[in-house]
Design brief:
It is a single chain. By secondary structure, the protein is of the alpha+beta class. Strand 2 and strand 3 (about 45-50) form a beta hairpin. The chain has one helix at about 5-15, and strands at about 20-25, 30-35, 45-50, 50-60. The longest helix has 12 residues, at about 5-15. It contains one helix and four strands, in the order αββββ. The chain starts with a helix and ends in a 41-residue tail after the last strand. Helix content is about 10%, strand content about 30%.
Length: about 100
């Protein structure tokens, strides 16, 4: 079992070498409200589900995602009664381009 705080640390480590190019929260999973401090010491109050469906690519192969999430590719999982979760914040969406 991985603690929710550890999941965020794992995401931070992956983001050092990879770009997140797509993510979809699994709407059948539990959702946690967390306070997270990013690498710039900015505090974020976020919702993080137990299960994230994520696709990464090495940083030198692509630029950052600027598209809103969820997008038209995303849909609810199975018989879930929950709506899609808004993930329009770092590290899922970056509002600036880095080359």
């Amino acid at each position: 079992y991985i603690l929710e705080k550890d999941k965020l640390n794992i995401l931070n480590k992956i983001n050092n070498t990879h770009w997140l190019i797509h993510v979809h929260p699994n709407t059948c999973s539990n959702i946690y409200n967390l306070e997270w401090i990013d690498t710039f010491d900015k505090i974020h109050n976020i919702k993080l589900p137990d299960i994230l469906e994520m696709t990464f690519i090495l940083r030198d192969h692509l630029e950052l995602n600027n598209d809103e999430l969820p997008c038209n590719l995303d849909m609810k999982n199975g018989e879930s009664h929950r709506d899609n979760i808004d993930l329009n914040y770092y590290p899922f969406v970056t509002k600036k381009k880095i080359y």
